[in-house]
Design brief:
The chain is of the alpha/beta class. The protein has helices at about 1-10, 50-55, 80-90, 110-115, 125-130, 135-140, 170-185, 190-200, 230-235, 250-265, 280-290, 300-310, and strands at about 20-30, 30-40, 65-70, 95-100, 120, 145-155, 160, 185-190, 215-220, 240-245, 265-270, 295-300, 315-320, 330, 350-355, 360-365. The strands form 3 sheets. It has a 9-stranded mixed beta sheet, sandwiched between helices. A hairpin with a 2-residue loop joins strand 15 (about 350-355) and strand 16.
């Protein structure tokens, strides 16, 4: 199962709207267990992990045990059910880490296997499988992608000087880690302020991983993103989605702005607004979930992060800390979010502290997530 989980991670950021799943087929012989097939969900979500493993195993799959990180599907979508494929291949036992909460599956895959005489065991590696599959699980159960905030700050939580200078708060190794995070997420999101100030590309620039650049998402209530920005100019090569207020596109100027962005290949997603006339972040995440995204990396700016924290929508943190101090006049990583009582603060449970060059990275998960 450890090997199957490692295979599943290969699909992170590449298989949405499907889950990243790993499968290992093992046959017992005189020498002990022998791996006869391995598979993981392929880019775009097909073929599924079980089919990949069965294809590699061929006739050796008969009588084998399949270790699968998520319950095999039991419904006909763009591919036949994986449960049927395992049965047809003659697998004798299936060990599943966790059940699939998708209403189209949700125990039906396991029931189909058992009805065919296949021994089924559940729960091995369940905790780690829940981490690997968290994006898919969140989309199915909450209707939105898993939200991870990635921030690079000084020790006092600042992301830029008062004049806006931010390159570079952290060192090259921490920045490389940030690009690896991009490669394992379906999409990166920034607010329009960051898009206008930094004119970022938001792509993955690690050698060998350039083709793993995710969807770039901009939260832009009034469609102010310029058509000549680097994001829009590259939209035909790397997808760009812009979420705006529904009211914006109902005006003549907003309709014209939409047309200019769409002419360059950007996708416009109008959503509901909040009481302050901005994009409602809950509606924005629902729209992204409806579009199939399962893992969202939020990289700024401070107001977008603050809005997500205020709505209790941040699931994880990848907080990069540089041993520097900028003081109170510098720009904060979190803006527009504050509480009067400690009991009301956003609480996260630390998972790990990782030294990265001269910096540190805090990995944390929202308490109760």
């Amino acid at each position: 199962m450890v090997a199957a989980l490692a295979l599943a991670r290969r699909g992170l950021g590449q298989v949405w709207p499907n889950p990243a799943v790993g499968c290992v087929l093992v046959r017992e012989d005189a020498a002990g267990g022998v791996v006869v097939g391995r598979g993981w969900t392929q880019p775009g979500g097909r073929p599924h992990a079980e089919v990949e493993a069965l294809t590699r195993a061929g006739d050796r799959a008969r009588g084998a045990c399949a270790y699968v990180t998520l319950e095999p599907c039991s419904h006909y979508g763009q591919t036949p059910p994986c449960a049927d494929a395992l049965i047809a291949a003659g697998v004798s036992r299936v060990v599943v880490a966790i059940r699939d909460p998708d209403p189209r599956v949700s125990g039906r895959g396991l029931a189909r296997l058992r009805a065919a005489g296949v021994r089924v065991d559940e729960g091995l590696g369940a905790e780690e499988a829940g981490v690997v599959t968290a994006g898919f699980l969140t989309r199915i159960t909450a209707g939105r992608p898993l939200v991870t905030v990635k921030a690079a700050t000084t020790l006092d939580g600042r992301i830029a000087t008062a004049r806006g200078e931010s390159r570079w708060i952290t060192g090259p190794r921490a920045r490389a880690l940030g690009h690896r995070l991009r490669a394992t997420h379906d999409a990166i999101a920034v607010g329009i302020g960051t898009a206008l100030t930094d004119d970022p590309m938001l792509d993955c620039r690690l050698p060998g991983l350039e083709d793993r650049s995710p969807v770039r998402v901009v939260i832009d209530s009034a469609l102010r993103l310029p058509a000549d920005s680097r994001l829009v100019a590259s939209a035909s090569r790397i997808p760009v989605w812009v979420l705006c207020r529904a009211e914006t596109v109902e005006t003549a100027e907003g309709h014209a702005r939409r047309g200019r962005l769409e002419a360059h290949g950007a996708r416009i997603l109008p959503v509901a607004s909040d009481g302050a006339g901005q994009v409602d972040v809950r509606a924005a995440l629902r729209a992204l979930g409806d579009a199939g995204l399962t893992r969202l990396l939020v990289e700024g700016g401070g107001r977008l992060i603050g809005s997500l924290l205020a709505a209790d929508l941040v699931d994880q943190l990848a907080w990069m800390l540089a041993p520097r101090l900028l003081g109170e006049d510098a720009r904060p990583a979190v803006a527009g979010f504050g509480v009067d009582r400690l009991a009301d603060c956003a609480n996260f449970a630390p998972l790990d502290w990782t030294p990265v060059g001269s910096d540190m990275v805090l990995w944390a998960r929202r308490v109760g997530a």
